[in-house]
Amino acid sequence: MNITDFRVGNHLEHPVFNGYTRIKAIAFNGFYIGTPEGNPIHISEFKPIKLSEETLINIGFEMINKSYFEMKVEGKDLVFEYTKDLNNDWYMMINRDTKIYMEYLHEFENLYYSLMKKELEIELNVY
Predict the structure, then answer these.
(1) Please, what's the b/e burial string for 62-76 (b: 16 or more CB within 10 A of its CB; e: otherwise)?
(2) 115 CB-near residues (< 8 Å, 6+ apart)
(3) Is residue 39 one of the residues assigned to a domain?
(4) Which three-class secondary structure state does DSSP give residue 37?
(5) Structure confidence by residue, pLDDT tens digits, 91-127
(6) Are residues 37 and 60 located together in one domain of the fold?
(7) 66, 56, 55, 60: which is closest to 19 by C-alpha?
């Protein structure tokens, strides 16, 4: 993982808790998130969260079928579609116009934040 791919507020898999955590700070040489004992854990220990069926539903997408998910942003003329191309690669489509290949939650969080100027509301068990 590259530190420049992440920002404060992104979610990652936590290696100690076997669950998810949110980045709370980024230091000049990487970011660290503490354990219950107060021990810091470096970025290299974390894993990005895949955009799985479960994750997509937890962040507000509706499953139309096994290879097509859709999220309509309330109060905005904005629709996100997550689907597969002919090579079976997943991509995000914005308003049926812009195609962006992605496979991780932090990539979508960053896209959403860039467009909406607010954090994506996510229902994950976060430590």
Answers:
(1) eeeeeeebbbeeeee
(2) 78, 94
(3) yes
(4) coil
(5) 999 999 899 999 999 999 999 999 999 999 887 766 5
(6) no
(7) 55
- CA–CA dist 109, 89 (Å, integer): 19
HSE-CB of 12 using CA atoms within 13 angstroms? 26
81 DSSP β-pair partners: 70, 93
For residue 124, being part of any structural domain is answered with no
Closest CA to 72 of 82, 84, 60, 64: 60
> Per residue in 51-78, pLDDT tens?
999 999 999 999 999 999 999 998 888 9
Residues 27, 71, single domain; the answer is no
| Same domain for 28 and 66 | no
Hey, what are 53's tokens?
A: 């069926």
Rounded Cα distance between 124 and 24, Å, is 16
The tally of domains found in the chain comes to 2
Amino acid at 100: I
